[in-house]
Amino acid sequence: MNTALPLLDAPPATLQLPDSAREGLARTPFGLYVHVPFCATRCGYCDFNTYTSDELGPGANRAEYAGTAIAELRRAAEVLGPDLPTVSTVFVGGGTPTLLPAGDLAAVLAAVRDLFPVADDVEVTTEANPESVTPASLATLRAGGFTRLSLGMQSAAEHVLAVLDRRHTPGRAVQAAEEARAAGFAHVNLDLIYGTPGETDADWAASLDAVLAAPVDHVSAYALIVEEGTRLARRIARGELPLPDDDVLADRYVQADTVLRGAGFDWYEVSNWSRGDAARCRHNELYWANANWWGVGPGAHSHVGGVRWWNVKHPAAHAQRLAAGEDPVADSEVLAPADRALETVMLGLRLRDGLPLTALSGSGRLRAADAVARGLLDPVAHEEGRAVLTDRGRLLADAVVRDLTD
Known about the structure:
The chain is of the alpha/beta class. The chain has helices spanning about 20, 60-80, 100-115, 135-145, 160-165, 170-185, 200-215, 230-235, 245-260, 280-290, 315-325, 335-350, 360-375, 380-385, 390-395, 395-405; strands spanning about 30-35, 85-95, 120-130, 150-155, 185-195, 220-225, 265-270, 270-275, 290-295, 300-305, 305-310, 330-335, 355, 385.
């Protein structure tokens, strides 16, 4: 059962980690996530903690955001010290991080290097919308130490982008990927969304063809989820658009897997494919391994040694707390051993390597044997003591996870 962390009372309490959370700090992979909450426009399907200029009040603006992020990085180093963990990954997400000047993002990364020990082979990713980068900005990011770019392509079909309220034009994502490679980025990812109302088989095939025409070594493909409270959900509720069809979503996934694997990509997590192990997103692997990370920015979540906390959501409140010398934490919890074990199963089962059967409860192991019989878990891996999803199991991954953890 989760319990509240008593050291995280109402502000201006100071965030402190119990000794139990520090025990494996030096031995556990550690990453930094920096959330940039700004977007030029709000996409109709998105429920992330993001804001357009019209939605922001005093105390939160792009020009000052790098300084706010650096202030929180300083607090992170103070809390984690004196034996700071080595940063193995940095991921700048959003929102649209590249709405900030490239020099500001480079300054944030420079502050990471000033405040923390950083691995020689550190992976540094920024997300970007295709229209928010230029050859010049990409060159600045690369010179500043960024090694990986993740571009939100979503679709190659203009009418699909319109339903999603995406503003870039078809073809721009591929062009941006080419510019990133020319700037010297070692790894480039394209994000796709499938199952958008109005998307045809030909549209999805064209999107996959466009990805294969781009100089990328990583592809993420996610089924469209209709999130409550979004413009897309309201349009569907009014009958303007149909709900995504589960059978169509399954067909789209199979098609993506077939096309990508045929082109030399291999899946390593249910929704992610890479050209070899070096192209995997190590930051996301850190999440899936239930390792440690510190989240910087409004609404960002952190996890260190079984302690989880999250920041206040609004950028103005976040900035005001840091300016006042206070922690921007909204709330926290200490994960009980049973909760941590459950999360290990939920995350690990989505990975290509699966997880040891010993990570399951007794009833979970019995259900795993049944899942093998139903073609959802690999029988050879099961004989070797691991639970690994089959191709059919990946289509029903969420259901398999629920079955093995109930």
